[in-house]
Amino acid sequence: MAAATGSISWKKALIPLASLPLIALLAYGFRTDPKNIPSPLVKKPAPAFQMAIYDGEPISLGGLKGKAVVLNFWASWCFPACYEEAPLLESTWRTYKEQGVIFLGVDIQDKEANAREFMRRFNYTFPNGPDPGSKISIDYGVYGVPETFFIDRQGRIAYKHVGALTPDLLRAQLDVLLKEQ
Amino acid sequence: MAGLMALVLLLVPVLGSAATAAVTQMPDFALEDRVREVAEGLRCVVCQNLSVADSPSDLAKEMRNVVRELIQQGKSPAEIRAYFVSRYGEFVLLAPPKRGFNLLLWGLPFLAIAAGACGVYFVAKRWTAQREPERAVDPEYAERVRRDLQERAGPSKS
């Protein structure tokens, strides 16, 4: 009789025990943000590109070797995130431009007139250009706008940020880029 | 002779461009089929569960263009998929590769079905085992029933 009750309680414990791995799997699944997909490009060499610049000479990434690059993907139709970070980008550019860093804006899937209006609105003084055929965007695995890549002096992608930049994040990442020699 | 050669050399690019212009009039169906084949396995990254082949979005269209260009450069479907994975991560593949942690994804449904079948088997076995065997009727009791029934039937007969 004692043996029988023993086996029953052991069997009863088996069901919750068996469901533990499943619960652990679900807990893992539900706690991960499906929208947060790590870029495979981080810590890898930044894909090379050459781009036309609105009112400027074409720029190639290869020609910027030795400089830290903040590569910002944006569009004039990207409201409100791109409009939120634009004043921050411009003011930070003005603060940092003498320190061996270049800001570069890639305007994606946009109309030139709207893009120029956007740049006028925020008094952009750093180089920005279109991305015909979204070639650069696809080469950087861009999901949407805004996205910002921080490229170190060796031409490696140090960090990727999705969404509007914040002052703290932008400054912290710039300091990391400029500290490395 | 040299003049003739020069003339031929001058004409070659002209003829070549005329030929490509003629090609662009009609879509290259074989090429488009191959583009579609690759694009069907790629996730449109700005959509919800749509492939690059099926999405009408601008980015998907431009991803199809990239696929087409890579095919024209002689890249194999596997190489093109590898390129997109190197830029967007494995998320860009609509079917996750069958290895590592992903095996759980592919195997778990079958495992669940097998576990369910085992559960049904054991429960059914327990139910059938629990049914009490038919007991032999006590002969004394059977005799009483027979007598009672006879008594009841008796008056109605007479």
Main-sheet strand order of chain A equals 5-4-3-6-7
Mean pLDDT value of chain B: 84
CATH superfamily of the largest domain in chain B: Cytochrome C biogenesis protein
Percent helix of chain B, as a range, is 55-70%
CATH topology of the largest domain in chain B: the name is Helicase, Ruva Protein, domain 3
Beta-strand content bin of chain A = 15-25%
Largest sheet of chain B: none
The number of helices of chain B is 6
What is the quaternary state of this protein?
heterodimer
Rg calc of chain B? 39 Å
Mean pLDDT of chain A: 92
Helix content of chain A: 40-55%
What's the number of domains of chain A? 2
Domain module tally of chain B: 2
H and E string of chain A: HEEEHEHEHEEH
What percentage of the residues of chain B does DSSP assign to strands (E)? under 5%
Total helices of chain A: the number is: 5
Task: Summarize the helix and strand pattern of chain B as letters.
Answer: HHHHHH
- Which parts of chain A are unreliable, with pLDDT below 50 for 5 consecutive residues or more? none
**What's the N-to-C terminus distance of chain A?**
77 Å
Question: What does it look like?
Answer:
- The complex is a heterodimer of chains A (181) and B (158).
- Chain A is α/β, with parallel strands linked by helices and 181 residues long.
- Chain A has two domains: 1-33; 50-179, 3-Layer(aba) Sandwich (Glutaredoxin), CATH 3.40.30.
- Chain A contains five helices and seven strands; from the N terminus they run H-E-E-E-H-E-H-E-H-E-E-H.
- Chain A has helices at 2-31, 81-96, 112-121, 135-139, 167-179, and strands at residues 50-53, 56-60, 68-74, 101-107, 128-130, 147-151, 157-162.
- In chain A, the strands form two sheets. Chain A has a five-stranded mixed beta sheet, covered by helices on one side. Chain A has a two-stranded antiparallel ribbon with strand order 1-2.
- Chain A starts with a helix and ends with a helix.
- The mean pLDDT of chain A is 92.
- Chain B has two domains: 26-92, Orthogonal Bundle (Helicase, Ruva Protein, domain 3); 102-157, no CATH class.
- The longest helix of chain B has 29 residues, at 102-130.
- Chain B is an all-alpha fold.
- The chains are: A alpha/beta (181), B mainly alpha (158).
- The interface between A and B is medium-sized, with 18 and 15 residues.
